[in-house]
Automatic annotation (TrEMBL), chain A:
Family: Belongs to the ABC transporter superfamily.
Domain ABC transporter, first and last residues per copy: 10-260, 278-518
SMART domains referenced in this protein's UniProt entry, alphabetically: AAA
Recorded GO MF terms: ATP binding; ATP hydrolysis activity
Stated name of the protein: ABC transporter
Pfam families per the UniProt record, alphabetical: ABC_tran (PF00005), oligo_HPY (PF08352)
Gene Ontology biological process terms, A to Z: peptide transport; transmembrane transport
InterPro entries with a match to the protein in the record: AAA+_ATPase (IPR003593), ABC_transp_ATP-bind (IPR050319), ABC_transporter-like_ATP-bd (IPR003439), ABC_transporter-like_CS (IPR017871), Oligopep_ABC_C (IPR013563), P-loop_NTPase (IPR027417)
Amino acid sequence: MPELLSVKNLKIEATSYPPGEPPKVVTLVEGVSFDLEKGKVLGLIGESGAGKSTIGLSALAYGRGGCRITGGEVLLNGKDILKLDRSGINAVRGCHVCYVAQSAAAAFNPAHKLGDQVIEASLRHGLMTREEARKRALYLFRVLGLPDPETFGDRYPHQVSGGQLQRAMTAMALCPNPELIVFDEPTTALDVTTQIDVLAAIKHAIEETHTAALYITHDLAVVAQISDDIMVLRHGKTVEYGTTKQVIEAPKEDYTRALVSVRQTRRDEAADQSGTLLEIEHVHAAYGNGFKVLHDVSMHLPKGQTLAIVGESGSGKSTLARVITGLLPPTEGRITFDGTELPKALKGRTHEHLRRIQMIYQMADTAMNPRQTVRNIVGRPLSFYFGMHGAQKTERVKELLDQIEMGSRFLDRYPAELSGGQKQRVAIARALAAKPELILCDEPTSALDPLVAEGILNLLLKLQEETAVSYVFITHDIAIVRAIADSVAVMHRGRLVRFGPKSKVLSPPFDDYTDLLLKSVPEMEIGWLEKVLKTRRMASAGN
Amino acid sequence: MESGPITGPVLTDAAAGETPLRPADLSGVPAKPNPAVATGEIGGTFWRRFIFRRPLAALILQRLGLSVGLLFAVSLMIFGGIEALPGDFATTYLGQSATPQAVENIRRDLGLDRPWSERYLDWLGGAVQGDFGTSWASKNSVSEQIGNRLGNSLFLAFFAALISVPLAVGLGMLAVQFRNRMPDKIINVISLAAISLPEFFIGYLLIMFFAVKWGVATFPATVYDSMSFAERLSAIALPVATLVLVVLAHMMRMTRAAILNVMSSAYVETAELKGLGTFRIIARHAAPNAVAPVINVIALNLAYLVVGVVVVEVVFVYPGMGQYMVDAVTVRDMPVVQACGLIFAAFYIFLNMAADILAILANPRLRHPR
């Protein structure tokens, strides 16, 4: 039987225009080959820049933003789609092969109803009548577990949640009954509890309709649940290609082994609970329009330890950080820092208050002035808080750069000349420069690739040992909590659900929400998804 | 003594000053109403609740209120500006025989000896009721004279808009479909040429070819009450063609830019990956989201059609508002200048307000709140 999709020796290039230099041709993907049978799922996995999306889009003969497919063959049912003309390729797209984008929020047209967009391709390709397409959409909305499937299609994209949009996007791809769907990180932008629903819905829908899929992700644990084969990519080349079982359980290459073992940093919680640094008591907070975002939140953090705040987006965890810094004064409650109460608003705080609490942000990119060198970025708090200047300041900046394992050769680099991980390290150095007692880390690793994120976490742990600094670590990733926290606060919809030492919070008996949160985190184990869904079904049957 | 039409440039400055602001202003229409800003302006919990429940109605009411406020501010500026002009009607009118006594007499007759605040309130009170006083030069009612002239100007502007707007949007979409290929380049070059030539030059060119050489068009474009509708249309053919050529390029290029901007969005990629044809992608997926900036530039050009036709009216000897105002400025006939200024400003503000409101209505997030 011929393969459904057979990619042979694919080569993709793009032209880059570095400022002040002649244009360069960059090879993004080289020598990639794979086969996909009908109804099977192939997972493409790798870090950002590995060329996964570019390869995925080649199955639709599409090059994004100046990418060109310059070599190889993409055979769909034995026919090379790269050789088709414009109308030939249009007959393949949206009919035989469909695409699910990472950000459904951006991929849906804001001006049209969801239902119309879901059935558009089926109608345009003349695959079914409007009535048939509507029925199929309704069926798919049901299969994908969307609320009120009858009226769901009448809504506009901004009227439904992110998880629902992602499922609607899957419905849009499934609607024309394609032979192949390319899923491009369909769950990456979602919360864990939502991710598992979408993942289950996608898996169910693929099985139900016998559609083959290319599943692109950077999360090996996710791809382990859904794919039959896995291809590991790095820098546009194949690292390892095999069945899911073989890649997960017996990886051959070092890189794959590193990916599989990435979540294994562990740290035991500190036993010593003496000397409270930060105490948050009955804090309430609201936005300017009166919308309440925090309800009666209390927690505390001992000196030299790490408090992890976990929750989904919208749980109020970042807001809590803004309240601690004084950017958003609480409407009620008090915050005590090292024995004295902090003035509520930023304006009322002294220089010294500001120095002792520093922040690290999720997007190091936007948190640094792109027109300042590393020397200026890290040096600024030195002159601001300690009045340092000249050689003394440079010396201290060098020390800090050594501390973050980067070294003085980065002194005169601009942020644009640094990688994502290096930028985050510079942001950490900037926070350290103030000699703070508390650093608020707002998802500092969630925009980074797993191996890089691991490096940042290890650095933070090392710095804590050296300087006895305390961290409030905001994250949605339970694995990180396990790795670095001493105490944990679980937040949900602006309320504190659970708080205590890590060992207590993360072990049973659980409250409902913490249970859901913990069980939603994908584990690198084949069949984990089925197991979770089964226990869930049993639980709901028992109710 | 100075004798140039100083009011002219002042007005067009106000118009030109607004131009670069428009696109930014419209893109700033909030996706969600910002209650903090709105309450800051109007205050009160009722308004706050109203904004929350009926964001669309609240935004539109806000725009209406702003427009009225703006019109008052403009009336004050027009009056103050004319007050501050050197020279006055009396000295211009009397010319050589301007003895201090004669000047004083005329000033008293016209009520110019009263304090300016009193005269302003008088004038504004009348203007609100549609009475702009009496022309100093002709002693006729300003409102009556303007009534005729405004009708003529609107007649001209209406037909220019009727032709130029669909043409501009159509050409803009065509240019996008053939982006960077021959049709796009031709459209671009021609529109650039049209936008670069001053309107009087285009007007004279058209007169030379269509009226003088080939004799197919009517010149001058003067219209009379006794003319039939068909005669009027034939009379205004050349001025309309001139106006269309002048405003077309701006609207066309803006349409093209707005659609191209939308074409790089993720949802257009989605449409491409559905295998849709280029035309359907442009018309169904790009155009509805490019509407807001396009409406804006259309409104701006419509305002120009009404307000900025002065030169075209003069070239074609067309009895519209523009010509009337220019005549009044040269003799310092202040009631007429003030009335024309206020009406032009009202048109400008009204059209921009309409553009804002349409852009708000075009935003699905505001039309269909959660």
